[in-house]
Amino acid sequence: MAESIPVGSTTAGQIAVAAESTVATRMSAPPSFDVADFPVPHGREEEWRFTPLARLRGLHDGTAKADGRVEIEVSLPAGVTQETVDREDPRVGKGGTPVDRVAAQAFSAFEKANVITVPKEARPAEPIRIAVRGHGGVAYGHQVVELGAFAEAVVVLDHTGDAVLAANVDYLLGDGAKLTVVSVQDWGTETVHVGQHNALIGRDASFKSVVVTFGGDLVRLHPRVSYTAPGGEAELLGLYFTDKGQHHEHRLFVDHNAPHCTSNVSYKGALQGEGAHAVWIGDVLIEAAAEGTDTYEMNRNLVLTDGARVDSVPNLEIETGEIVGAGHASTTGRFDDEQLFYLMARGIAEEDARRLVVRGFFAELVQQIGLPDVEERLLAKIGEELEGAVG
């Protein structure tokens, strides 16, 4: 069925900066659903220092008025339900509290939340597909995906068109549930998209998130994970291709607040063109009660041209020594000369060799999506990005 409803930086030319600290887990204001609890950011706050505030079109200071239209079309497999609810519904905001002013603004400004429910023990044979299409102007939204105990589902959240959008998403996993989410940001060139994605993982539940960002003028996403009980697993994968003038920012936070849970974070990005700017912040907090935690986070960036800029900041804060393992890594570089030489020595032209290296850089991650149509589309999009840009 388908239904439509309203709804530490570098200078130019440098490759990257990578740093470690725990300061990014300390926000300038505590989480809150009330916009008034967050001061208007000025750009010096830890959570805003990489973001070009002037390009947010007023989402950060309250001047952005909801005058646009975003259409949501949902395709549901049998047994899965959809409803629209008010913000007073207990499921809305259950995944996590807004951690910055834009997320709080989105929560206070949306008209109706879209709630998709997968019943207990259900295992839909087809993915749940949510198409979000921008038709210009400013819009706010809220999406909830709830899985009952031992349910299993795949969700594809696909963003296209043009909009200035602030929207939050809650993923609620019951005990033993398994959810895979693929969120694709394939926006038009003028779009500004800011979103907080909250995953609340139940006992022995498994959450896999794949975030793919191509389009937009500015995209800033804040995936967050927390656990309700032991045994939860989280895998956060990401891919971004940042072009000339684009700003792509992914700020992840995994809160290990329950014992014997695991998390694995792996994000890869490629950048090309003057003023292309990618930001990756990876925060992991292991609380004192989270004994037996096993976590690792990694960010890799491939810089294709001069003038691109990367800020990659892994953060790890540990409050207990009783853990299985914890680590992080961040790497940024240009093409591997040995790989290029190997391919060119076998008669492959340099331009084609460079394309093959980039496709190989992303292929392992893309193949983990598990949906052939989505995988083919993303690999084709990577090819389009490389046309006329790598050489």
TrEMBL record:
Domain SUF system FeS cluster assembly SufBD core: 135-361
Family annotation (InterPro entries): Fe-S_cluster_assembly_SufBD, SUF_FeS_clus_asmbl_SufBD_core, SUF_FeS_clus_asmbl_SufBD_sf, SUF_FeS_clus_asmbl_SufD
SUPFAM superfamilies per record: Stabilizer of iron transporter SufD
Domain of life: Bacteria
UniProt xrefs under PANTHER family: PROTEIN ABCI7, CHLOROPLASTIC
Family: Belongs to the iron-sulfur cluster assembly SufBD family.
Protein name: Fe-S cluster assembly protein SufD
Organism of provenance: Streptomyces evansiae
